Amino acid sequence: MSENVKKTGGWRTNKWVRAAIPALLLHCSIGTVYCWSIFSQEIADYIGFSKGATEWAFSFAIFFLGMSAAFLGNVVEKDIHKSSLIAAICFAAGMAGTGGFIYYGGMHKGSAVALIGIYICYGFIMGIGLGTGYLSPVKTLMLWFQDRKGLATGLAVAGFGAAKAIASPIMQAMLNGLGEGGIYKMFWILAVVYFIMMFVGHLLLKKPDGWHEPQKSEKAPGILDVIKTKPIVNYIGIWLMFYINITCGLALLSQEKMIVKCIGLAGSVGIISTISAVFNAGGRLGFSAWADTMKDRNTIYKIIFVMSIALTGLVIVTGGIKNGAGNTALTILVLVLIMAVNAGYGGGYSNVPTLLSDHYGMSNISAIHGITLSAWGFAGLTGNQLATWIVNHFGETVEVDHYMVNPVGYQTVLYVTIVLYIVALVLSLVCVKPTDKALEAKAAKKAAK
To answer: What is the mean pLDDT of residues 32-49?
Structure first.
């Protein structure tokens, strides 16, 4: 950072105003995509389709988040103002369009036009806003907070996770208070609110003075050239363990409500959902801040995977989901697993950009981070759908406290996730090599002995 930044002071060169606050405004807006479960049944009922048919809108949103991040990473790298404006426009337009097609679907029950329109608006258009909005503040944060990159990115990404906890009760109150057609009215109101929030974030967001971007006359290294500075299996390992962590997280969390009902806590579903969202946000901030103190950030992923394997194994061995109703110890164990997976799921997100910058440097971090977020897109198509397929094909529906649940099906999901977590742990141990910083620290420690 230049001396000018250090001496001038004022809000124009304040890292909180120019990086942290706009990042939170952007991420707290786009993070509401995870509120889908709050209103998905209402959408299905209002437009005359099954919940399963409408669920694809959320899957498409996550898929296009990853794909837009991958393909627009270079746009973000070159111009954060253009990318943050694209994010604000696409996210708000997608939300408003979703409301419009819900309104149309209410007027024409069972209309394929309404369903496809929701797929396009919530899935594709909002997905572009999600991908560009997620990427835009990340590099800026790492440039302003070079000594605590993990803390900075964790703070912003925590906003993405906390958005669900903040917005869920507001959305529920709006659905209850807006009366007939409240579902589409809610989308229109929130489109305006989130556009204002994201546009303010767009105006504030700025890289520090003195940061040198390659000029047009300079030949900047391509993304593949940067990735090839390390063995290619190193990047493949990072991509795969990120993909697996998200897939496992989505597989379990997509069944969270039903698992909670299965262990006899149906009356506390809303509270537990809010607490799990807090753990998700806390994991994003806590794990990334913790990683700042480590020689090798990959250690955080090893911790996340070991924790997930141990707790998943305990719930499998004890049959915690099947036997949890009426058993306090098993109920607590299942809740601990849900909270730990939420925290690890969030921590896996927040540490990706800083892990990549440690391995490949800052020159192309937005573009490399964008390509890596394609793992999020593919996980969005596989995580939820994998768990749904397992629950539909294993076990049978039984009644627990007047609710129909499938204990064996939910328990079977854990057999798949524990295997995937083990694969991810092996990848982090074998494929992802120590950074130069970690190797230097190890050599210095050995020399001191």
So the answer is: 91
Name the pLDDT band for 156 (thresholds 50, 70, 90). Answer: confident
- Top-confidence residue, 76 or 302: 302
- Cα 283 from Cα 271, distance rounded (Å): 18
Spatial CB neighbours of 162, under 8 Å, sequence gap ≥ 6 = 28, 31, 277, 278, 280, 281
CATH architecture of 222-442: Up-down Bundle (1.20)
Q: How far apart are CA 344 and CA 342, in angstroms?
A: 6
The pTM (predicted TM-score) of the whole model is 0.85
Do 287 and 300 meet the contact criterion of CB atoms below 8 Å apart?
A: yes
Q: What is the chain's percent helix, strand, coil content, to nearest 5? A: 80, 0, 15
Q: Which CATH class is domain 12-209?
A: mainly alpha
313: tokens are: 């194994």
Bridge partner residues of 398 (DSSP): 405
Does 222-442 match 12-209 at the fold level? yes
For the beta carbon of residue 11, count every other beta carbon within 10 angstroms: 10
What is the residue extent of each domain of the chain? 12-209, 222-442
